[in-house]
Structure formats: C-alpha cells, structure tokens
Amino acid sequence: MREVVWLFLKLGTIAFGGPAAHIAMMRDEVVRRRRWLSDEQFMDLLGATNLIPGPNSTEMAIHLGYLRAGWPGLVVAGCCFIVPAMLIVFACAWLYVRYGTQPEAAWLLYGVKPVIIAVVVQAMWSLLRTAVKGPMLAVVGVAVLALSLMGGNEIALLLGGGGVAVLLGTVGTRGAAAPLGLGAGAGLTTLFLVFLKIGSVLYGSGYVLLAFLRNDFVERLGWLTDQQLLDAVAVGQVTPGPVFTTATFIGYVLGGIPGAALATLGIFLPSFVFVALSHPLVPKIRASRRAGAFLDGVNVAALGLMAAVTSQLGRAAIVDATTAALALIAPVLLVRFRLNSAWLVLGGGAVGAALHLRG
Known about the structure:
Largest sheet: none
Shape: globular
Mean pLDDT: 80
Number of strands: 0
Structural class: mainly alpha
Number of domains: 1
Radius of gyration: 20 Å
Distance between the termini: 44 Å
Order of helices and strands: HHHHHHHHHHHHHHH
Helix content: over 70%
C-alpha cells in the first residue's frame, strides 16, 4: 500500500501531457521499473480501460492499485492520482476568481512537452512488441492510426479493431494472464449531478469533454460564458494529473470550496465503479479464445489511437531546435541509462524555467 500511495501521489503531481503521457509514465513505473505486471497484462488493462467511460489514465491508476493492493488499493490509487492535481487546479481557480486571470504556465510546458513526447514514443515502442502478435494485427493498428488522424470516432475504432481481430481469428492458443458560491439559479445538487452524468457517459479526449461542458454549463444552464469555459479547460490541460480536474476549476468558480469538492467527486466517482466491476473480468476475457481475440484487437487499436494523439501533440511540442534536442535526448536517457521518466519531466520543466528567466 505504501508503494501505491507514493507512486500515484508522485504521478498526480508531475504527470503532465494528458492520458497518453500518463499511461506511458505508468508503464515505465509499474512494468519497467517495479515489475508489478508484464507488458501483456498492462495492455489488457489498457484495452479494458478504453472500453469503459471516464478518464482513461485515472481508470488505469485505479486498475493498477487494485492489482497491487486489492480493494483498498483501488480506492487509494485513484484518490492519490486525483488529489494532487485537484489541489493544483484548485489553487489556479482561486487565483482566477481573485485576480480574473489564469496563471501563466507556458514557460514550464515549453520544456516538459517534448520530453513527454519522447516518453510516450518509447512506451509505445515497447508495448508494440507485446500488442502486435502478427501481420494482420499490425494492419489493424495502422488502419486505426490512419482513421483516427482522419477524424474517426475513438470508440468505433476500438470496437472495430476488436471485431476485426475476432473475424480474422488472430488470437493464438496461449492461456490467461494473471489477474491483475454559485451564480444565480445554480445549485450544488445540480452541479454534482451534471458532473456525475458526464463522468458516467463520456468517452474520448479533452475536446469531447469540452463539448459536454459547453452543452451543459454554457448553453443549457447558462452558468458560464464561453471564455470562462475555455479558461477552465486550459487550466486542466496545462496542470499535471487528470484533465478531468477541469471539473474542480468549474466547481470552484461556480460554488467555492463545496462546489469544487462536489464537481470533482461527481466526475471521478463513476470511474471507481466501472473499474471495480470490470477488473475481475479481464483475466476471464483473456482466457476465452474469441474474447481474447477481441481484446487483442482493442489493444492494437488503442496503440493506434495513442500514436495519432502523439503525432498531433508532437507537432505542437517540437517548435524549435531546443525542443527538438530535448525530444532526442530524453529517449537516450530513458533507454540507455534507465532514468526514471519523472526526472525527465522535471528536467524538461527546469530547462523551460531557465530559458524563461534568462529571456
């Protein structure tokens, strides 16, 4: 349990870059460094996570906590991953309400982003050898990557990848893996229920979250302006930990400390329930020939989606010679010297801070 607490508190504090980066850092910690599980088991949990609603990286943390420390670990891992990010976003929301602006973090992200890209690429390369069990699965992964870059729906691509794998009979005969103060007219109950609904049904990226939030808080309830919503999403994107802590920001802006607490609880609570229900099924799915084939297809589809997101983030992160150098140096340090990815992220932030102070 101490391992679970320390690991996910650390990741919740320094894991910048969104779900793909968070998952890559988790893989570095629990597969490569701590050896809690194999790459194959990690991919199976990732595939299961992609099939349920909610924030993928948070649900992956909950899965890993359950695998390592049982039911108490399920709760503790999720809370430890969420709470540091929630507190950072809470501080940003306090500054926003008090001074009418969001804190500037561009200098920090300048150095962090290219390092994150390197960490994700290295993780995908390692997972690729586990997930791609034959040429047909490789074709499925490439097809999902291409369709995702063309704007394909994430859930349709995941289910399609699983379905194609079943039809092609790509699974082998291997056995199961081991188990692993509100504005006028607003109310705290409504705030909680809206975020509970979003956490229960939302698939996809931060852009999908933006659509849900705008529909409920700008158009239907009229509690936020478009600019306030964009500010909230921006804070969620540039702070470490789950992007869904955007809910903390909105909750504080609308309802102070009680609003922040209820909004955060509402959007994350379904993830704990979904993981608790789905985690015991993963080894059973792997033991079934057809279900295992479906999971293989979902796994390579998930890698295809990760590759698509990484390519988009890479274009935004690598903008000059310095960021290109960081992106090239980071994988060398990660692979050759087995440096912990957390130190790489902190180092990238230090480079950004140094350049900001010098400039």
